Amino acid sequence: MGIVIARQRKEKGFTQKQLGDKLSVSNKTVSKWETGVSQTKGY
Length: 43
Hints:
It is a single chain. By secondary structure, the protein is an all-alpha fold. The protein has one domain (1-35). Helix content is 65%, strand content 0%. The longest helix has 11 residues, at 2-12. Residues 5-36 form the HTH cro/C1-type domain. One of its GO terms (molecular function) is DNA binding. It holds the Pfam family HTH_3. This is Helix-turn-helix.
């Protein structure tokens, strides 16, 4: 899942901070999602 998030983010031209701001989470959270340290909730 993290690879997909990172790829989509990069294709859209977003930094981790920009994506985090759009999703109301920190850039550290985005980084954890992308590296597989933390899982996203599928809702």
